[in-house]
Amino acid sequence: MSENVSIVIVSHSPAVARGAADMVRQMVGDDVRIACCGGNPDGGLGTDVGAILGAINSAWSPKGVAILVDLGGAETNSEMAIEMLDPEKSKRVAICNAPVVEGSVMAGTEAACGSSLEEVKRTAEEFQS
Amino acid sequence: MTKNLISRLIAKIADSICASADDLTKLDQAIGDGDHGINMRRGVEALLKQGDDISRQDFSTALRKAGTAIVMSVGGASGPLYGSALLAMAKTASSMPSNQAEVGVVVAAGIDAVKARGKSDAGAKTMLDVLIPVHREIENGSSIDRIRRVAEESATATKPLLAKKGRAAFLGERSIGHIDPGAKSAALIVHAVCEVLEKR
Amino acid sequence: MKGHDAEIQWVDGKAKIIDLVGLHARPAVKLTKLAKSYKSEVEICSGENRNWVNAKSPNAVMKLRADYNSPLFVRASGSDAAQAVKAIIDLVDRNFNE
């Protein structure tokens, strides 16, 4: 696999996160590493900083990681997780301000073409249905 | 003394949150996603589980470990908010504050972290609407009794506010008339800390 | 790009969307990825109004909403323009390998 920007999907619901990741895999292919997480530490709806850290590390690419989040806590917990990474790594992680499913597909498409983290983030954020 | 105080603080905060977890959840069901009580209980249970280790540390390390435990366990947005507050306080406090002015400096660092993490400030119907007035009382050298009263009154005073942050903000006008669950849990924590310090 | 059409040397091509649901999301992703693999500027448009969009923009291609049986026009400008146009027309003709 050539090193492309990776995608991390964070939803309150593990099913939504997995579903969005499946869509990216099917539509974009295997050129982009994708990790997803959803649910609080007890398995209920919510997000989990530890799981987000795990997802970022498992999908890690030196080219960067774009994170797509759904609602409030998902963003706050993702920001927290980014700060808890090594400073060298955290510089190469960005949260995209985009709808989680559509943004993931757009970000994945851009990433699959070898684009930079900034371009991936911009494409996800430009999405308008 | 330090160790005793830290473990007593953890125990009292945990008691208070667990006793009110259902109330917090009810408040959150009205204007949030109904999990604040459950999330906060998970957080204090993590604190209790690591309580022996945390209370063995110096004050700053204890705050840092407590913050990490909260961040990793709570799940909702309140985890990073309370967790960031503790982590920032850990950075500011080189040792256990020995007077109220020093407490004020440490608390201020925590409040700044909550503002930054939540991109929020006073008046948005959040925990800051309790923490900021409480900090003002600490700085003014108010009595513990007064600090506790201000915390409670400030939580109640979030009732008529319009939520501008978090899930409650989606409700707009409908968020008016409910106490903010985060403000309530902040008041409970302040209350628990006051009780421990009073009996010191 | 618009407004400079007269000065740019375009290689043109035309294909037809044969998928019954038109140019839907998954083929749009494939088209974008393919277009991005060329150095040339690549644009596409659907129908006769010739509203060219950047074929390398996933957002623009998704929004094109080219229908079944409608022509898809392709044009490219740059050192590998001919290859780019041919590759995209082949992709559409193969129904995006769907």
Produce a short descriptive summary:
The complex is a heterotrimer of chains A (129), B (200) and C (98). Chain A has helices at residues 14-28, 49-58, 72-84, 87-90, 100-112, 117-126; strands spanning 6-11, 34-38, 65-69, 93-96.
N/C terminus separation of chain C: 31 Å
Total count of domains of chain B: 1
Order of helices and strands of chain C: EHEEHEH
Number of domains of chain C: 1
What can you tell me about this protein's structure?
- The complex is a heterotrimer of chains A (129), B (200) and C (98).
- Chain A is 50% helix and 16% strand.
- Chain A has 6 helices and 4 strands, in the order E-H-E-H-E-H-H-E-H-H.
- Chain A has helices spanning 14-28, 49-58, 72-84, 87-90, 100-112, 117-126, and strands spanning 6-11, 34-38, 65-69, 93-96.
- A 4-stranded parallel β-sheet of chain A has the order 2-1-3-4, sandwiched between helices.
- Chain B is mostly helical and 200 residues long.
- Chain B has helices at residues 2-31, 36-49, 51-56, 59-73, 78-92, 100-118, 128-139, 144-156, 181-198.
- Chain C has a single domain, classed as HPr-like (Histidine-containing Protein, Chain: A), CATH 3.30.1340.
- Helix content of chain C is 33%, strand content 21%.
- Chain C has a 4-stranded antiparallel β-sheet, with helices on one face.
- The radius of gyration of chain C is 12 Å and the shape is globular.
- The model of chain C has no long low-confidence stretch (mean pLDDT 87).
- The interface between A and B is medium-sized, with 19 and 21 residues.
What is the topology?
The complex is a heterotrimer of chains A (129), B (200) and C (98).
Chain A: E1 6-11, H1 14-28, E2 34-38, H2 49-58, E3 65-69, H3 72-84, H4 87-90, E4 93-96, H5 100-112, H6 117-126
Parallel strand pairs in A: 1-2, 1-3, 3-4
Helix pairs in contact in A: 1-5, 2-3, 5-6
Chain B: H1 2-31, H2 36-49, H3 51-56, H4 59-73, H5 78-92, H6 100-118, H7 128-139, H8 144-156, H9 181-198
Helix pairs in contact in B: 1-2, 1-9, 2-4, 4-5, 5-6, 6-7, 7-8, 7-9, 8-9
Chain C: E1 11-16, H1 25-36, E2 41-46, E3 53-54, H2 58-64, E4 71-77, H3 81-93
Antiparallel strand pairs in C: 1-4, 2-3, 2-4
